[in-house]
Amino acid sequence: MPGITLGDTVPNLDVETTHKNFKLHDYFADSWTVLFSHPGDFTPVCTTELGAMGKYAHEFEHRGVKLLGLSCDDIQSHKDWIPDIEAFTPGSKVTYPIIADPNKEIIPQLNMIDPIENGPSRALHIVGPDCKIKLSFLYPSTTGRNMDEVLRALDSLLMAAKHKNKIATPVNWKPDEPVVISPAVSDEEAKKLFPQGYKTAELPSKKGYLRVADVS
Ligand code: BEZ
C-alpha cells in the first residue's frame, strides 16, 4: 500500500465538502475521525455504506468521534444523492460531511487508491487527534465494508489509547470483554498497572506471555 500509512500525518489538504470547505487538520483537531472513501455517487454498494454510516452516526458521536466521507464526484451530485442514501437505509441520516473529489486529485494524496484498478477504492483511515493515521482498511470497490467491524476496531484503538498502549485487544474483542497485557509490560509493571489482578494463561511453552486483565 504505497503512500501515507499507519503513523503518518494526513496531509493538511483544503477540501470542499457538503457542509463547508475546510482544511483537514482543522476538522481532525481535538478528536478522532473516521475518514472513508467511496468510488462514486449513485452506485449501489456506496449507497448502502453511506446509509449504514448514517445509521451508526450516533454510535460515533457517543464516542466523541467524527465521520468524514469522500466520494469521487462533485458537491451537487453528493447533495442530489443523499435522499437516495437515506431512503434506502431507514433510520439513516447523513449528518456527516462528504468531501468532493470529482477529478480524483485527493484520493492519491490520502492513499485511498486501489492499486490493482489504479482507481478509487473503499479505503478507511481512523485518524487520531494528532492528525496521524492509527488504522487503515483498504477494500476493492466490489466489497462493501462491515460497519460493526469499523466500530469494533475504533473501540479497540480507543481502549489501547486510554491505557497508553500497555494493553491490546484479542481476536474478536468487544467492549466489556477482557483485554491482554502488552508483551512490552513486565510482570512487575503489570502488577502495578492492574492492582485488581490479571490471569496468566498456562500454555505448553510455560513462557507466561498471554496475560488477560479485566479493565471494565
Ligand atoms: C458500488 O458502489 O456499487 C460500486 C462502485 C464502483 C464499482 C463497483 C461497485
Automatic annotation (TrEMBL):
<dbReference type="Pfam" id="PF10417">
    <property type="entry name" value="1-cysPrx_C"/>
</dbReference>
<dbReference type="GO" id="GO:0140824">
    <property type="term" value="F:thioredoxin-dependent peroxiredoxin activity"/>
</dbReference>
<dbReference type="Pfam" id="PF00578">
    <property type="entry name" value="AhpC-TSA"/>
</dbReference>
<feature type="active site" description="Cysteine sulfenic acid (-SOH) intermediate; for peroxidase activity">
    <location>
        <position position="46"/>
    </location>
</feature>
<dbReference type="InterPro" id="IPR036249">
    <property type="entry name" value="Thioredoxin-like_sf"/>
</dbReference>
<protein>
    <recommendedName>
        <fullName>Peroxiredoxin</fullName>
        <ecNumber>1.11.1.24</ecNumber>
    </recommendedName>
</protein>
<dbReference type="InterPro" id="IPR024706">
    <property type="entry name" value="Peroxiredoxin_AhpC-typ"/>
</dbReference>
<dbReference type="InterPro" id="IPR013766">
    <property type="entry name" value="Thioredoxin_domain"/>
</dbReference>
<feature type="domain" description="Thioredoxin">
    <location>
        <begin position="4"/>
        <end position="159"/>
    </location>
</feature>
<keyword id="KW-0049">Antioxidant</keyword>
<comment type="similarity">
    <text>Belongs to the peroxiredoxin family. Prx6 subfamily.</text>
</comment>
<keyword id="KW-0575">Peroxidase</keyword>
<keyword id="KW-0560">Oxidoreductase</keyword>
<keyword id="KW-0676">Redox-active center</keyword>
<dbReference type="InterPro" id="IPR000866">
    <property type="entry name" value="AhpC/TSA"/>
</dbReference>
<dbReference type="InterPro" id="IPR019479">
    <property type="entry name" value="Peroxiredoxin_C"/>
</dbReference>
<comment type="function">
    <text>Thiol-specific peroxidase that catalyzes the reduction of hydrogen peroxide and organic hydroperoxides to water and alcohols, respectively. Seems to contribute to the inhibition of germination during stress.</text>
</comment>
<dbReference type="InterPro" id="IPR045020">
    <property type="entry name" value="PRX_1cys"/>
</dbReference>
